[in-house]
Amino acid sequence: MTARIYQRPKNAMQSGKALLGQWILEFAPAEARRPDPLMGWAGSSDTQAQVQLKFGSQAEAQAYADLYGIAATVHATPPRRLKIQAYADNFR
């Protein structure tokens, strides 16, 4: 069972920064999705793909993975780059 640990990204549709401190442990899919013969929807019988565990810090998520023997990879969050400009710069 493999998993990935990452920090929740900021929602592009909102300017707020709520829940950005959460770290998520998400299991990798154990089998490929396949189309349903009747409806054609993609699905699988892998129930672990539906599980998302939320933690307050990266250390807590890594400790949980170590405790239960889950091989987890940590995906670091890239640093945010702010483009600071004045409103008047739009008219130059």
Task: Report what the structure shows.
There is one protein chain. The chain has a single domain, classed as Double Stranded RNA Binding Domain, CATH 3.30.160. With 92 residues, the chain is α+β, with helices and mostly antiparallel strands. A hairpin with a 6-residue loop joins strand 3 and strand 4. It is 11% helix and 26% strand. The mean pLDDT is 89. The chain has one helix at residues 58-67; strands at 2-7, 23-27, 34-35, 42-43, 52-55, 71-75. The strands form two sheets. A four-stranded mixed β-sheet has the order 5-2-1-6, with helices on one face. The relative contact order is 0.27.
Rg calculated over all Cα atoms:
19 Å
Mean pLDDT: 89
Helix fraction? Answer: 10-25%
Q: How does the major sheet shape up?
A: 4 strands, mixed
From the N-terminal CA to the C-terminal CA, the straight-line distance is: 55 Å
N-to-C SSE string, H for helix and E for strand: EEEEEHE
Q: Which consecutive residue ranges, at least 5 long each, have pLDDT under 50?
A: none
Give a quick set of tags describing it.
two-stranded antiparallel ribbon; Double Stranded RNA Binding Domain; 6 strands; alpha+beta
Layout of secondary structure:
Layout: E1 2-7, E2 23-27, E3 34-35, E4 42-43, E5 52-55, H1 58-67, E6 71-75
Parallel strand pairs: 1-6
Antiparallel strand pairs: 1-2, 2-5, 3-4
Short recap of the structure:
The chain is an alpha+beta fold and 92 residues long. Helix content is 11%, strand content 26%.
